[in-house]
Write a structure and sequence with these properties.
182 residues; mainly alpha; Four Helix Bundle (Hemerythrin (Met), subunit A); two-stranded antiparallel sheet; 65% helix; 4% strand
Length: 182
């Protein structure tokens, strides 16, 4: 899975969907995603070059800058998976091992990522992700289908969004703050 930009796939067009009334739930999810991305960007923008190069933890091994870039770069994948569920289709052939491999490949290929390009990607991808979330209806948020990432348990689009795209920046922000305090 590529993760640089969010594709507008399926039968739904973002422009068409924005013409209808925005769901309060979808708007709240998008607001939370934007708040988390902004908090991560705010912290990242204050990091020194040495802090940008620090490892998040011995266990993780990734540099702080790489982790910030990781959050920015996976919004498209996270949103794409949620859109599959919004369409009522199952998520197939995506496992924890696939995610771990994607993360390892990302860390290796983006080891020297700059703060400027990372903050730009975070800003762009979080804005598109939030707009895509706002375009979802309550009915789409409530749709559930089996998801291979959850051992084929049926999950809703909203759960996928909350557990991935919305939570992601908060999760890594906490880990980065802990690394900086250590």
């Amino acid at each position: 899975m590529s993760s640089e930009t969010i594709p507008h796939t399926g039968s739904r067009s973002l422009d068409t969907r924005q013409k209808r009334t925005v769901s309060t739930r979808a708007s709240a999810l998008a607001d939370r995603l934007e708040q988390g991305a902004q908090a991560l960007a705010t912290l990242a923008s204050t990091l020194t070059d040495a802090q940008w190069q620090m490892r998040v933890s011995a266990r993780d091994g990734r540099k702080i800058g790489v982790v910030v870039h990781h959050v920015a770069s996976v919004y498209p994948v996270e949103i794409q998976l949620a859109q599959v569920l919004a369409d009522g289709k199952p998520i197939v052939d995506v496992t924890v091992d696939d995610v771990n491999n994607m993360n390892a490949d990302h860390a290796q290929s983006h080891d020297g990522v700059t703060k400027a390009e990372t903050l730009d990607l975070l800003r762009r991808n979080s804005a598109v992700a939030a707009a895509t979330i706002r375009a979802l209806s309550d009915e789409e948020l409530d749709r559930a289908a089996p998801a291979s990432l959850y051992f084929d348990a049926p999950i809703t689009c909203q759960f996928m969004l909350e557990d991935h795209a919305v939570r992601h920046s908060y999760h890594h922000l906490a880990r980065i703050r802990a690394a900086l305090k250590a």
